[in-house]
Amino acid sequence: MQFQKKYIPFIIGVAIAAGIFVGGKLNFTDAPDRLFSTNSKKDKLNRLIDYIDYEYVDEVNTDSIVDVTVNGILENLDPHSIYIPKEDMERVAENMKGDFVGIGVSFYPYKDSIAVIRAIKGGPSEKAGIKGGDRIIMADSDTLYGKHLNDENMVRKLKGPINSKVNLKVYRKGEPGLLSFTVKRSHIPIKSVDAVYMLTEKLGYIKINRFAESTYKEFKKGLSKLQKLGATELVLDLRDNPGGFLGVAEQIADEFLEKDKLILFTKNKRGQVEKSFATKRGAFEDGNVYVLINENSASASEIVAGALQDNDKGTIVGRRSYGKGLVQREMDLGDGSAVRLTVSRYYTPTGRSIQRPYRNGHKDYYDDYYTRLKSGELIDPEKIEVADSLKFKTPEGKIVYGGGGIIPDVFVPLDSAMHSELLTYLRGRISYFVFEELEKDRKAYEGVSRQDFIDTIEVKDALVFAFQDYLNIRTETEITFVAYHNEVKQYIKAALADQLFGEGAYEEVFNQNDMMIEEVIGLSGNE
Questions:
Q1: Distance between CA 392 and CA 388 in Å, rounded?
Q2: What is the pLDDT of residues 451-460, one digit of tens each?
Q3: How far apart are CA 491 and CA 495, in angstroms?
Q4: What is the pLDDT of residues 2-50, one digit of tens each?
Q5: 339 and 327 part of one domain
Q6: Looking at the structure, do residues 279 and 142 belong to the same domain, yes or no?
Q7: Same domain, 239 and 379
Protein backbone atom coordinates (compact mmCIF):
# COMPACT_ATOMS: atom_id res chain seq x y z
CA MET A 1 0.00 0.00 0.00
CA GLN A 2 1.26 3.43 -0.79
CA PHE A 3 0.18 6.82 0.46
CA GLN A 4 0.67 9.74 -1.94
CA LYS A 5 0.06 13.04 -0.20
CA LYS A 6 1.27 16.50 -1.23
CA TYR A 7 2.52 18.34 1.84
CA ILE A 8 2.42 22.10 2.10
CA PRO A 9 5.69 23.95 2.72
CA PHE A 10 4.74 24.92 6.27
CA ILE A 11 4.13 21.32 7.34
CA ILE A 12 7.31 20.08 5.71
CA GLY A 13 9.31 22.71 7.59
CA VAL A 14 7.94 21.49 10.90
CA ALA A 15 8.64 17.87 9.92
CA ILE A 16 12.25 18.72 9.19
CA ALA A 17 12.68 20.52 12.50
CA ALA A 18 11.07 17.61 14.32
CA GLY A 19 14.00 15.45 13.41
CA ILE A 20 14.43 14.24 9.83
CA PHE A 21 17.94 12.92 10.06
CA VAL A 22 21.16 12.47 8.17
CA GLY A 23 22.68 9.08 9.00
CA GLY A 24 26.23 9.67 10.06
CA LYS A 25 29.23 7.62 11.05
CA LEU A 26 29.41 6.85 14.76
CA ASN A 27 32.75 5.84 16.29
CA PHE A 28 32.91 5.71 20.08
CA THR A 29 36.50 5.79 21.30
CA ASP A 30 35.58 5.07 24.93
CA ALA A 31 35.29 1.45 25.98
CA PRO A 32 31.68 0.24 26.48
CA ASP A 33 32.19 -0.29 30.22
CA ARG A 34 33.26 3.34 30.60
CA LEU A 35 30.72 4.82 28.20
CA PHE A 36 27.73 3.14 29.82
CA SER A 37 29.00 2.72 33.38
CA THR A 38 26.77 3.26 36.37
CA ASN A 39 26.88 6.73 37.87
CA SER A 40 24.87 8.87 40.24
CA LYS A 41 22.88 10.58 37.48
CA LYS A 42 21.65 7.28 36.05
CA ASP A 43 21.06 5.86 39.53
CA LYS A 44 18.86 8.83 40.38
CA LEU A 45 16.57 8.23 37.39
CA ASN A 46 16.43 4.48 37.98
CA ARG A 47 15.56 4.94 41.66
CA LEU A 48 12.82 7.43 40.87
CA ILE A 49 11.18 5.02 38.42
CA ASP A 50 11.45 2.20 40.97
CA TYR A 51 9.88 4.36 43.70
CA ILE A 52 6.94 5.19 41.44
CA ASP A 53 6.56 1.53 40.43
CA TYR A 54 6.54 0.15 43.97
CA GLU A 55 5.59 2.94 46.35
CA TYR A 56 3.39 5.51 44.56
CA VAL A 57 -0.21 5.54 45.84
CA ASP A 58 -1.84 5.00 42.40
CA GLU A 59 -1.07 2.63 39.55
CA VAL A 60 1.03 4.48 36.98
CA ASN A 61 2.23 3.46 33.52
CA THR A 62 5.92 4.07 34.07
CA ASP A 63 6.64 3.34 30.39
CA SER A 64 4.90 6.58 29.51
CA ILE A 65 6.86 8.41 32.23
CA VAL A 66 10.11 7.14 30.73
CA ASP A 67 9.01 8.35 27.28
CA VAL A 68 8.28 11.80 28.69
CA THR A 69 11.63 11.82 30.48
CA VAL A 70 13.55 10.88 27.35
CA ASN A 71 11.76 13.53 25.30
CA GLY A 72 12.43 16.10 28.01
CA ILE A 73 16.16 15.33 27.97
CA LEU A 74 16.37 15.55 24.17
CA GLU A 75 14.46 18.83 24.07
CA ASN A 76 17.34 20.37 26.00
CA LEU A 77 19.83 19.39 23.30
CA ASP A 78 19.12 20.43 19.70
CA PRO A 79 15.99 20.41 17.50
CA HIS A 80 17.05 17.31 15.58
CA SER A 81 17.87 14.87 18.38
CA ILE A 82 14.62 12.92 18.75
CA TYR A 83 13.09 9.89 20.43
CA ILE A 84 11.24 7.24 18.37
CA PRO A 85 8.80 5.14 20.43
CA LYS A 86 8.73 1.44 19.61
CA GLU A 87 5.22 1.67 18.16
CA ASP A 88 6.54 4.09 15.50
CA MET A 89 9.72 2.23 14.62
CA GLU A 90 8.28 -0.02 11.89
CA ARG A 91 6.70 2.88 10.02
CA VAL A 92 9.84 5.02 10.30
CA ALA A 93 12.09 2.15 9.19
CA GLU A 94 9.89 1.36 6.19
CA ASN A 95 9.88 4.96 5.04
CA MET A 96 13.66 5.17 5.08
CA LYS A 97 14.22 1.67 3.71
CA GLY A 98 12.15 2.45 0.62
CA ASP A 99 9.78 -0.51 0.49
CA PHE A 100 7.43 -2.75 2.48
CA VAL A 101 5.45 -5.94 1.97
CA GLY A 102 1.86 -5.35 0.91
CA ILE A 103 -0.74 -5.65 -1.85
CA GLY A 104 0.24 -2.54 -3.81
CA VAL A 105 -2.56 0.01 -3.87
CA SER A 106 -2.83 3.72 -3.21
CA PHE A 107 -6.02 4.33 -1.26
CA TYR A 108 -8.18 6.75 0.69
CA PRO A 109 -10.12 5.89 3.83
CA TYR A 110 -13.35 7.03 2.19
CA LYS A 111 -16.87 6.83 3.65
CA ASP A 112 -15.80 4.23 6.22
CA SER A 113 -14.14 1.95 3.67
CA ILE A 114 -10.92 1.51 1.71
CA ALA A 115 -11.31 3.25 -1.65
CA VAL A 116 -8.59 2.38 -4.16
CA ILE A 117 -7.17 5.46 -5.89
CA ARG A 118 -5.22 3.21 -8.25
CA ALA A 119 -3.34 -0.06 -8.20
CA ILE A 120 0.42 0.50 -8.30
CA LYS A 121 1.83 -0.24 -11.73
CA GLY A 122 3.34 -3.71 -11.87
CA GLY A 123 2.21 -4.52 -8.34
CA PRO A 124 0.25 -7.56 -7.15
CA SER A 125 -3.12 -5.81 -7.03
CA GLU A 126 -2.82 -4.55 -10.61
CA LYS A 127 -1.87 -8.06 -11.74
CA ALA A 128 -4.90 -9.46 -9.91
CA GLY A 129 -7.24 -7.00 -11.65
CA ILE A 130 -8.02 -4.42 -8.95
CA LYS A 131 -8.81 -0.96 -10.36
CA GLY A 132 -9.14 2.63 -9.24
CA GLY A 133 -12.50 3.24 -7.57
CA ASP A 134 -12.76 -0.28 -6.11
CA ARG A 135 -13.76 -0.58 -2.45
CA ILE A 136 -11.95 -3.32 -0.53
CA ILE A 137 -14.61 -4.70 1.81
CA MET A 138 -12.94 -7.77 3.26
CA ALA A 139 -9.43 -9.24 3.58
CA ASP A 140 -9.77 -12.97 4.32
CA SER A 141 -12.22 -13.00 7.24
CA ASP A 142 -11.53 -9.43 8.37
CA THR A 143 -14.02 -6.70 7.51
CA LEU A 144 -12.51 -3.49 6.20
CA TYR A 145 -15.35 -1.05 6.61
CA GLY A 146 -17.04 0.80 9.43
CA LYS A 147 -16.36 3.85 11.57
CA HIS A 148 -14.18 1.85 13.98
CA LEU A 149 -11.53 1.27 11.32
CA ASN A 150 -8.60 3.69 11.19
CA ASP A 151 -5.67 3.96 8.77
CA GLU A 152 -3.40 1.87 11.00
CA ASN A 153 -5.91 -0.99 11.21
CA MET A 154 -6.46 -0.94 7.46
CA VAL A 155 -2.76 -1.13 6.72
CA ARG A 156 -2.14 -3.88 9.27
CA LYS A 157 -4.89 -6.10 7.83
CA LEU A 158 -3.57 -5.79 4.29
CA LYS A 159 0.08 -6.34 5.14
CA GLY A 160 1.58 -9.75 5.74
CA PRO A 161 4.60 -11.99 5.09
CA ILE A 162 6.27 -11.87 1.69
CA ASN A 163 4.56 -14.16 -0.89
CA SER A 164 1.60 -14.80 1.42
CA LYS A 165 -1.84 -14.65 -0.20
CA VAL A 166 -4.86 -12.66 0.86
CA ASN A 167 -8.41 -13.12 -0.42
CA LEU A 168 -10.13 -9.81 -1.04
CA LYS A 169 -13.81 -9.02 -1.45
CA VAL A 170 -14.27 -5.91 -3.55
CA TYR A 171 -17.25 -3.71 -4.37
CA ARG A 172 -17.04 -2.23 -7.86
CA LYS A 173 -19.58 0.28 -9.13
CA GLY A 174 -21.82 -1.24 -11.78
CA GLU A 175 -21.18 -4.86 -10.78
CA PRO A 176 -24.14 -6.85 -9.42
CA GLY A 177 -22.24 -8.35 -6.49
CA LEU A 178 -18.92 -8.37 -4.67
CA LEU A 179 -15.88 -9.41 -6.70
CA SER A 180 -13.28 -11.85 -5.35
CA PHE A 181 -9.53 -11.45 -5.88
CA THR A 182 -6.59 -13.45 -4.55
CA VAL A 183 -3.54 -11.20 -4.19
CA LYS A 184 -0.02 -12.43 -3.48
CA ARG A 185 1.80 -9.94 -1.26
CA SER A 186 5.17 -8.69 -2.45
CA HIS A 187 7.70 -5.90 -1.91
CA ILE A 188 6.07 -2.55 -2.69
CA PRO A 189 8.39 0.40 -3.31
CA ILE A 190 7.95 3.66 -1.43
CA LYS A 191 9.36 5.82 -4.17
CA SER A 192 11.67 8.68 -3.32
CA VAL A 193 12.04 9.81 -6.95
CA ASP A 194 8.70 11.38 -7.82
CA ALA A 195 9.24 12.26 -11.47
CA VAL A 196 11.66 11.69 -14.36
CA TYR A 197 10.98 13.34 -17.73
CA MET A 198 12.38 15.67 -20.39
CA LEU A 199 11.64 19.39 -20.11
CA THR A 200 13.24 20.23 -23.47
CA GLU A 201 15.17 18.27 -26.08
CA LYS A 202 18.36 18.54 -24.03
CA LEU A 203 17.12 19.30 -20.47
CA GLY A 204 16.07 16.41 -18.24
CA TYR A 205 14.24 16.63 -14.90
CA ILE A 206 14.42 14.48 -11.75
CA LYS A 207 12.44 15.20 -8.58
CA ILE A 208 13.64 13.58 -5.32
CA ASN A 209 11.35 13.78 -2.26
CA ARG A 210 13.78 12.32 0.34
CA PHE A 211 17.08 10.43 0.61
CA ALA A 212 16.16 6.85 1.54
CA GLU A 213 18.06 3.58 1.06
CA SER A 214 16.54 3.10 -2.39
CA THR A 215 17.04 6.69 -3.61
CA TYR A 216 20.42 6.30 -5.29
CA LYS A 217 19.23 3.28 -7.27
CA GLU A 218 16.07 5.14 -8.32
CA PHE A 219 18.11 8.21 -9.26
CA LYS A 220 20.59 6.22 -11.36
CA LYS A 221 17.75 4.51 -13.22
CA GLY A 222 16.13 7.88 -13.93
CA LEU A 223 19.40 9.51 -14.99
CA SER A 224 20.17 6.66 -17.38
CA LYS A 225 16.71 6.98 -18.91
CA LEU A 226 17.14 10.72 -19.48
CA GLN A 227 20.61 10.32 -20.98
CA LYS A 228 19.21 7.78 -23.46
CA LEU A 229 16.59 10.39 -24.39
CA GLY A 230 19.36 12.89 -25.14
CA ALA A 231 19.71 14.83 -21.88
CA THR A 232 22.96 16.79 -21.70
CA GLU A 233 21.64 19.05 -18.92
CA LEU A 234 19.69 18.13 -15.80
CA VAL A 235 17.31 19.76 -13.36
CA LEU A 236 17.65 18.11 -9.95
CA ASP A 237 14.58 19.21 -7.99
CA LEU A 238 15.22 19.09 -4.23
CA ARG A 239 12.48 21.51 -3.21
CA ASP A 240 10.65 20.48 -0.02
CA ASN A 241 13.06 17.55 0.40
CA PRO A 242 13.71 17.21 4.16
CA GLY A 243 16.79 14.99 3.86
CA GLY A 244 17.67 11.44 4.82
CA PHE A 245 20.82 9.36 4.69
CA LEU A 246 24.15 11.17 4.42
CA GLY A 247 25.70 8.31 2.42
CA VAL A 248 23.00 8.52 -0.24
CA ALA A 249 23.54 12.28 -0.61
CA GLU A 250 27.25 11.58 -1.09
CA GLN A 251 26.53 9.01 -3.81
CA ILE A 252 24.31 11.40 -5.75
CA ALA A 253 26.74 14.32 -5.46
CA ASP A 254 29.47 11.96 -6.69
CA GLU A 255 27.61 11.54 -9.99
CA PHE A 256 28.33 15.20 -10.83
CA LEU A 257 31.83 15.66 -9.43
CA GLU A 258 35.22 14.60 -10.76
CA LYS A 259 37.38 12.11 -8.90
CA ASP A 260 38.94 13.33 -5.63
CA LYS A 261 36.72 16.44 -5.35
CA LEU A 262 35.73 16.97 -1.71
CA ILE A 263 32.00 16.38 -1.16
CA LEU A 264 31.85 17.28 2.55
CA PHE A 265 33.53 16.66 5.88
CA THR A 266 32.14 16.00 9.35
CA LYS A 267 33.54 16.93 12.76
CA ASN A 268 32.49 15.48 16.12
CA LYS A 269 32.84 16.78 19.70
CA ARG A 270 36.38 15.41 19.97
CA GLY A 271 37.45 17.27 16.84
CA GLN A 272 37.73 14.15 14.72
CA VAL A 273 37.29 14.97 11.04
CA GLU A 274 36.08 12.56 8.37
CA LYS A 275 36.22 13.61 4.73
CA SER A 276 34.24 12.26 1.80
CA PHE A 277 35.63 12.52 -1.73
CA ALA A 278 34.14 11.90 -5.16
CA THR A 279 35.15 8.74 -7.02
CA LYS A 280 35.74 8.15 -10.71
CA ARG A 281 32.26 6.70 -11.28
CA GLY A 282 30.35 9.96 -11.95
CA ALA A 283 27.91 9.57 -14.84
CA PHE A 284 27.13 13.28 -15.30
CA GLU A 285 30.47 14.97 -14.68
CA ASP A 286 30.42 16.69 -18.08
CA GLY A 287 26.74 17.64 -18.05
CA ASN A 288 25.36 20.91 -16.76
CA VAL A 289 23.15 20.60 -13.68
CA TYR A 290 20.62 22.97 -12.10
CA VAL A 291 19.70 22.19 -8.50
CA LEU A 292 16.34 23.56 -7.31
CA ILE A 293 16.07 24.36 -3.59
CA ASN A 294 13.71 26.28 -1.36
CA GLU A 295 13.21 27.09 2.31
CA ASN A 296 12.18 23.46 3.01
CA SER A 297 15.19 21.80 1.36
CA ALA A 298 17.19 20.45 4.27
CA SER A 299 19.97 18.21 5.45
CA ALA A 300 20.95 15.74 2.68
CA SER A 301 19.46 18.14 0.11
CA GLU A 302 21.82 20.83 1.37
CA ILE A 303 24.76 18.43 1.24
CA VAL A 304 24.19 17.89 -2.49
CA ALA A 305 23.58 21.59 -3.21
CA GLY A 306 26.56 22.69 -1.09
CA ALA A 307 28.93 20.13 -2.61
CA LEU A 308 28.11 21.25 -6.13
CA GLN A 309 28.13 24.97 -5.34
CA ASP A 310 31.46 24.83 -3.51
CA ASN A 311 33.04 22.90 -6.38
CA ASP A 312 31.74 25.41 -8.96
CA LYS A 313 29.59 22.73 -10.56
CA GLY A 314 26.27 23.75 -12.10
CA THR A 315 23.83 26.36 -10.81
CA ILE A 316 21.79 26.43 -7.60
CA VAL A 317 18.36 27.98 -8.30
CA GLY A 318 15.61 29.02 -5.90
CA ARG A 319 15.58 30.38 -2.36
CA ARG A 320 17.78 29.95 0.72
CA SER A 321 17.57 26.40 2.01
CA TYR A 322 16.47 25.30 5.47
CA GLY A 323 19.82 25.33 7.28
CA LYS A 324 20.38 21.92 8.88
CA GLY A 325 24.04 21.00 9.27
CA LEU A 326 23.81 18.46 12.10
CA VAL A 327 24.37 14.74 11.66
CA GLN A 328 22.23 12.24 13.58
CA ARG A 329 22.77 8.57 14.25
CA GLU A 330 19.95 6.21 15.20
CA MET A 331 20.72 4.18 18.33
CA ASP A 332 18.68 1.34 19.78
CA LEU A 333 17.47 1.79 23.37
CA GLY A 334 16.95 -1.92 23.97
CA ASP A 335 13.14 -2.08 24.18
CA GLY A 336 12.24 -1.57 20.52
CA SER A 337 12.51 2.21 20.73
CA ALA A 338 15.42 4.31 19.51
CA VAL A 339 16.97 7.73 19.71
CA ARG A 340 18.37 9.77 16.86
CA LEU A 341 21.17 11.69 18.50
CA THR A 342 23.22 14.47 16.95
CA VAL A 343 26.79 13.15 16.84
CA SER A 344 28.61 15.63 14.58
CA ARG A 345 28.33 18.65 12.32
CA TYR A 346 28.91 18.54 8.60
CA TYR A 347 30.68 21.17 6.53
CA THR A 348 30.62 21.90 2.80
CA PRO A 349 33.88 21.67 0.83
CA THR A 350 34.84 25.33 1.46
CA GLY A 351 34.41 24.78 5.20
CA ARG A 352 30.93 26.22 5.64
CA SER A 353 28.60 25.08 8.39
CA ILE A 354 25.11 25.79 7.12
CA GLN A 355 23.35 24.97 10.41
CA ARG A 356 21.19 27.91 11.42
CA PRO A 357 21.13 28.98 15.09
CA TYR A 358 18.81 27.28 17.58
CA ARG A 359 19.91 29.10 20.74
CA ASN A 360 16.55 30.89 21.07
CA GLY A 361 14.68 27.65 21.63
CA HIS A 362 12.84 25.11 19.54
CA LYS A 363 9.75 27.23 18.96
CA ASP A 364 11.71 30.02 17.25
CA TYR A 365 13.58 27.39 15.29
CA TYR A 366 10.35 25.77 14.08
CA ASP A 367 8.85 29.17 13.22
CA ASP A 368 11.77 30.24 11.04
CA TYR A 369 9.64 30.03 7.88
CA TYR A 370 7.35 32.73 9.19
CA THR A 371 10.35 34.83 10.24
CA ARG A 372 11.71 34.64 6.70
CA LEU A 373 8.30 35.43 5.23
CA LYS A 374 7.90 38.46 7.50
CA SER A 375 11.42 39.74 6.77
CA GLY A 376 10.75 39.69 3.04
CA GLU A 377 13.65 37.39 2.13
CA LEU A 378 11.34 34.95 0.31
CA ILE A 379 10.51 37.76 -2.12
CA ASP A 380 13.72 39.84 -2.16
CA PRO A 381 17.22 38.28 -2.01
CA GLU A 382 18.62 41.54 -0.63
CA LYS A 383 16.71 40.80 2.59
CA ILE A 384 18.75 37.63 3.27
CA GLU A 385 20.95 38.32 6.28
CA VAL A 386 24.59 37.28 5.84
CA ALA A 387 27.67 37.74 8.01
CA ASP A 388 31.05 38.73 6.56
CA SER A 389 32.68 36.54 9.20
CA LEU A 390 31.03 33.55 7.52
CA LYS A 391 32.17 34.42 3.99
CA PHE A 392 33.95 31.74 1.96
CA LYS A 393 35.34 31.48 -1.58
CA THR A 394 34.99 28.64 -4.06
CA PRO A 395 37.99 27.58 -6.20
CA GLU A 396 36.78 29.89 -8.99
CA GLY A 397 36.40 32.82 -6.60
CA LYS A 398 32.62 32.80 -6.08
CA ILE A 399 31.53 34.17 -2.69
CA VAL A 400 29.40 31.80 -0.58
CA TYR A 401 28.16 32.14 3.00
CA GLY A 402 27.70 29.86 5.98
CA GLY A 403 25.54 30.32 9.03
CA GLY A 404 22.12 29.18 7.86
CA GLY A 405 21.28 27.37 4.65
CA ILE A 406 22.55 27.41 1.08
CA ILE A 407 21.99 30.74 -0.69
CA PRO A 408 21.23 30.03 -4.36
CA ASP A 409 23.23 31.37 -7.30
CA VAL A 410 20.00 32.42 -9.02
CA PHE A 411 17.17 33.65 -6.79
CA VAL A 412 13.51 32.93 -7.63
CA PRO A 413 10.95 34.61 -5.36
CA LEU A 414 8.05 32.86 -3.70
CA ASP A 415 5.04 32.86 -6.00
CA SER A 416 2.59 34.60 -3.70
CA ALA A 417 -0.42 33.50 -5.74
CA MET A 418 0.51 29.84 -6.12
CA HIS A 419 1.55 29.47 -2.48
CA SER A 420 -1.12 31.55 -0.80
CA GLU A 421 -2.72 30.31 2.41
CA LEU A 422 -5.93 29.69 0.48
CA LEU A 423 -4.34 27.28 -1.97
CA THR A 424 -2.40 25.36 0.66
CA TYR A 425 -5.70 24.98 2.50
CA LEU A 426 -7.29 23.60 -0.66
CA ARG A 427 -4.78 20.98 -1.79
CA GLY A 428 -5.92 17.99 0.24
CA ARG A 429 -9.56 18.81 -0.38
CA ILE A 430 -8.96 18.92 -4.12
CA SER A 431 -7.75 15.30 -4.00
CA TYR A 432 -10.98 14.13 -2.41
CA PHE A 433 -13.06 16.21 -4.83
CA VAL A 434 -11.21 14.75 -7.83
CA PHE A 435 -11.75 11.21 -6.54
CA GLU A 436 -15.49 11.83 -6.30
CA GLU A 437 -15.56 13.37 -9.79
CA LEU A 438 -13.81 10.32 -11.21
CA GLU A 439 -16.33 8.10 -9.44
CA LYS A 440 -19.12 9.71 -11.47
CA ASP A 441 -17.66 8.47 -14.76
CA ARG A 442 -14.26 6.78 -14.82
CA LYS A 443 -14.89 5.59 -18.36
CA ALA A 444 -14.60 9.19 -19.56
CA TYR A 445 -10.81 8.83 -19.44
CA GLU A 446 -10.55 5.32 -20.87
CA GLY A 447 -8.31 5.33 -23.92
CA VAL A 448 -6.64 8.63 -22.96
CA SER A 449 -2.91 8.12 -22.71
CA ARG A 450 -0.81 9.71 -20.00
CA GLN A 451 0.96 12.03 -22.44
CA ASP A 452 -2.25 13.00 -24.24
CA PHE A 453 -3.81 13.90 -20.89
CA ILE A 454 -0.82 16.07 -19.90
CA ASP A 455 -0.50 17.76 -23.29
CA THR A 456 -4.10 18.22 -24.44
CA ILE A 457 -6.71 17.77 -21.71
CA GLU A 458 -7.98 21.05 -20.26
CA VAL A 459 -9.94 21.36 -17.05
CA LYS A 460 -13.20 23.13 -17.78
CA ASP A 461 -14.29 26.21 -15.84
CA ALA A 462 -17.38 24.29 -14.73
CA LEU A 463 -15.21 21.87 -12.77
CA VAL A 464 -13.59 24.76 -10.86
CA PHE A 465 -17.04 26.09 -9.98
CA ALA A 466 -18.15 22.59 -8.97
CA PHE A 467 -15.18 22.36 -6.59
CA GLN A 468 -16.06 25.78 -5.19
CA ASP A 469 -19.61 24.56 -4.44
CA TYR A 470 -18.26 21.24 -3.06
CA LEU A 471 -16.00 23.10 -0.64
CA ASN A 472 -18.57 25.64 0.49
CA ILE A 473 -21.20 22.98 1.21
CA ARG A 474 -18.82 20.85 3.30
CA THR A 475 -17.12 23.67 5.19
CA GLU A 476 -20.04 26.08 5.39
CA THR A 477 -17.92 28.87 3.93
CA GLU A 478 -18.33 31.35 1.09
CA ILE A 479 -15.05 30.92 -0.79
CA THR A 480 -14.77 32.15 -4.37
CA PHE A 481 -11.86 31.52 -6.74
CA VAL A 482 -11.99 34.69 -8.80
CA ALA A 483 -8.38 35.63 -8.01
CA TYR A 484 -7.10 32.04 -8.11
CA HIS A 485 -9.15 30.48 -10.89
CA ASN A 486 -6.24 29.35 -13.07
CA GLU A 487 -4.20 28.12 -10.11
CA VAL A 488 -7.11 25.99 -8.84
CA LYS A 489 -7.59 24.65 -12.35
CA GLN A 490 -3.96 23.56 -12.43
CA TYR A 491 -4.24 21.86 -9.04
CA ILE A 492 -7.32 19.95 -10.21
CA LYS A 493 -5.60 18.77 -13.39
CA ALA A 494 -2.49 17.71 -11.45
CA ALA A 495 -4.64 15.74 -8.97
CA LEU A 496 -6.51 14.09 -11.85
CA ALA A 497 -3.22 13.12 -13.50
CA ASP A 498 -1.93 11.69 -10.22
CA GLN A 499 -5.01 9.56 -9.58
CA LEU A 500 -5.28 8.35 -13.17
CA PHE A 501 -1.64 7.70 -13.99
CA GLY A 502 0.75 8.30 -11.04
CA GLU A 503 4.39 7.83 -12.10
CA GLY A 504 5.24 11.55 -11.84
CA ALA A 505 2.19 12.78 -13.75
CA TYR A 506 1.35 15.22 -10.92
CA GLU A 507 4.75 16.93 -11.17
CA GLU A 508 4.69 17.03 -14.96
CA VAL A 509 1.35 18.87 -14.94
CA PHE A 510 2.18 21.09 -11.98
CA ASN A 511 5.55 22.15 -13.39
CA GLN A 512 4.00 23.56 -16.55
CA ASN A 513 3.59 26.99 -14.95
CA ASP A 514 6.31 26.75 -12.32
CA MET A 515 8.48 29.86 -11.93
CA MET A 516 11.69 27.98 -11.09
CA ILE A 517 11.27 25.60 -14.02
CA GLU A 518 10.67 28.53 -16.35
CA GLU A 519 13.79 30.24 -14.96
CA VAL A 520 15.92 27.16 -15.60
CA ILE A 521 14.59 26.68 -19.13
CA GLY A 522 15.56 30.29 -19.78
CA LEU A 523 19.03 29.77 -18.34
CA SER A 524 19.49 26.59 -20.35
CA GLY A 525 18.48 28.29 -23.58
CA ASN A 526 20.95 31.12 -23.03
CA GLU A 527 23.97 28.93 -22.36
A1: 9
A2: 999 999 999 9
A3: 6
A4: 434 443 443 444 444 444 455 554 444 444 444 555 567 778 888 888 8
A5: yes
A6: no
A7: yes
